[in-house]
Amino acid sequence: MVIRFVQLCVTFTKHKADLAPEERREIVTYFRSRLPIFVSQVYRLLKCFRNLIGGLSPSQNFVLASYIAPEVHFLHKNSSDSYLR
């Protein structure tokens, strides 16, 4: 769900110069109509994730953090690098 959203944004950004103004408006209008649904889904996902993490033991929290921390660092580094280009 989040990946599809990001892919849509990247694709639109790459190809918006190739689109007619009316096509761009249609895409933005469609995106705006779906944005509340997307935000709601992300919110529900984060609430479920929070509830799941709340029930973990300290050792399980440590194991989870050892998996997540490198991924977050990787994503942060890549997103920071892309802004510098």
Protein architecture, described:
The chain has 85 residues and is mostly helical. The protein folds into 2 domains: 1-54, no CATH class; 57-85. Helices cover 88% and strands 0% of the residues. It has helices spanning 2-15, 21-54, 58-84.
Number of domains: 2
Class inferred from helices and paired strands: mainly alpha
Round the mean pLDDT to the nearest integer and report it.
85
> Can you tell me the overall shape?
elongated
Beginning-to-end CA distance, first to last residue: 27 Å
**Low confidence ranges:** none
How is the biggest beta sheet arranged?
Answer: none
Strand residues, percent: under 5%
Question: What would you report as the Rg, rounded to the nearest angstrom?
Answer: 18 Å
Count of discrete alpha- or pi-helical segments spanning 4 or more residues? 3
- N-to-C SSE string, H for helix and E for strand: HHH
Which percent range fits the helix content? over 70%
Strand tally, please?
A: 0
